[in-house]
Design brief:
Number of helices: 12
Helix content: 25-40%
Number of domains: 2
Shape: globular
Bound molecules: zinc ion
CATH class of the largest domain: Alpha Beta
Structural class: alpha/beta
């Protein structure tokens, strides 16, 4: 009885907290800034005393703790390059953090080596609370609140737990609870069609690229498919072209969020859908030029993020590896959070076989990620039936493993693809200078043609 009472009390408190937090984006700018500044000062104190990376630099006089009073002062602090998180991750972890109760996220290893980040419990709760913010947007766009039906299209083949964790590990997005139906990216078109037509979801979430792919395929085939009001996913996996086609040709709205392993949730698209509102009270975002100098509002540069709430792996001024521009111009939705427009997102195009089976990078990654010394993988689709798979590994002695990989990947594709394996050769860069997990060299040929159509 007592236990039940405690549980109810806890649930109610969580609900009240959630509703209160949901008002934050509408607070006056000064109040949002005060909250962010307070959190930054606390974080900086932890960094100075307990995080070797910062403590050493402070001791050498490279930075001064007293100069960091608020987020505006971040411009005076050095930038943490992505390499630091790859080469010396433990030096960015607070000695005070209770690692046994932290969650360790690993990046996919698609951008120059795997990076590990410890996230403390409190930070995870903040992140979950911010997940509830999205409910307002969903309600506005779908009109459904309590009886919301949703289907998720995700990567994996294990239990729900493993799936969520795997997704979080591989794509740098925190997992969110899945209600309603659940499908795998890998499952055949007909199965997806049946589940979606049975559940008739308001929202289809998950790997946005795979969701987009399904509805465009249905559109092209003239299939009788239930159309959700909204597709929800992360910036990863869907290009502006695909989004436009979904909204115009299929009449389905697309709203994305911007997240990363290092900073968890960074921004979200509101009902208006123009740019990402930055979660300003849990992360600070700045734009700098290639020399690390702060750029004026509206100018495009490197996206630098400070996670204000994670006290385990402490990241102050972390170079996120993306490019974008910021604006403080008011949004018609009424939220005061400033907005970010990403120039080059971590777009991961879907992989296809000549018979139009769809695969996600993460599914291929699953085949190799546990290999000895595995560090990173890049897939280059040279032609519709030939992939070059580049793998970086610290271990050059396990030749049997190397031989196995190509075979395993070929089997996944139903032996429709010939896989050429390149061990420890340098990764290739996109035209924009970014190291992408997947590069498609034959986007003018079927089955990739659709991605470039508009
Ligand atoms: Zn807005």
């Amino acid at each position: 009885m007592n236990n039940r009472f405690t549980q109810t009390a806890r649930r109610m408190r969580a609900r009240v907290n959630g509703s209160w937090e949901a008002t934050v984006p509408f607070w006056p700018k000064a109040a949002i800034r005060r909250r962010a500044d307070r959190r930054l000062r606390h974080l900086a104190r932890i960094a100075a005393q307990h995080v070797p990376f910062y403590r050493d630099r402070l001791a050498r006089g490279e930075m001064h703790i007293t100069e960091l009073r608020g987020t505006v002062d971040l411009a005076g602090w050095p930038i943490v390059p992505p390499d630091a998180l790859r080469d010396e991750p433990e030096r960015l972890v607070s000695e005070q953090a209770d690692l046994a109760h932290c969650v360790r996220f690993l990046s996919s290893g698609s951008t120059g080596g795997r990076k590990s980040v410890y996230v403390d419990h409190k930070s995870l709760i903040h992140n979950a609370v911010y997940g509830t913010l999205g409910k307002w947007v969903i309600f506005k766009l779908t009109g459904a609140l309590f009886r919301l039906r949703s289907v998720a299209i995700i990567v994996g083949d294990g239990t729900l737990d493993e799936l969520g964790q795997m997704y979080a590990d591989a794509f740098g997005t925190p997992r969110s609870p899945v209600q309603g139906g659940q499908l795998e990216v890998f499952s055949p078109f007909e199965e997806k069609l049946e589940v979606i037509n049975t559940i008739k979801p308001h929202v289809v979430a998950g790997v946005a690229g795979a969701v987009a792919d399904f509805f465009l395929e249905a559109h092209d085939r003239g299939a009788d498919v239930h159309r959700p009001k909204l597709i929800k996913g992360t910036a990863e996996g869907i290009s502006p072209r695909l989004r436009q086609r979904l909204e115009n040709d299929c009449g389905i709205l697309v709203r994305l969020s911007y997240a990363s392993v290092e900073s968890l949730k960074i921004g979200f698209q509101c009902e208006v859908g123009d740019g990402y509102h930055i979660h300003e009270d849990v992360c600070a975002v700045r734009i700098v030029d290639d020399d690390g100098q702060e750029l004026p509002e509206g100018e495009t540069g490197r996206v630098i993020v400070t996670n204000l709430v994670n006290h385990a792996t402490v990241l102050i001024n972390y170079d996120q590896g993306d490019r974008g521009r910021l604006s403080t111009a008011p949004c018609p939705c009424g939220r005061r959070f400033k907005r970010l427009w990403l120039e080059e997102t971590r777009e991961t195009p879907m992989l296809r076989t000549p018979t139009r089976q769809v695969l996600h990078y993460g599914e291929v990654l699953r085949q190799v990620i546990d290999g000895p010394g595995f560090e990173a993988m890049q897939i280059i689709v040279e032609s519709p039936d030939r992939w070059r798979v580049l793998i970086h590994t610290e271990d050059n002695t396990h030749h049997t493993w190397h031989d196995e990989i190509a075979e395993r990947i070929e089997r996944m594709t139903g032996d429709e693809i010939h896989v050429e394996l390149n061990m420890n050769t340098p990764f290739e860069y996109s035209a924009g200078g970014k190291q992408l997990p997947v590069i498609i060299r034959c986007s003018d040929q079927p089955p990739y043609l659709r991605d470039s159509e508009c």
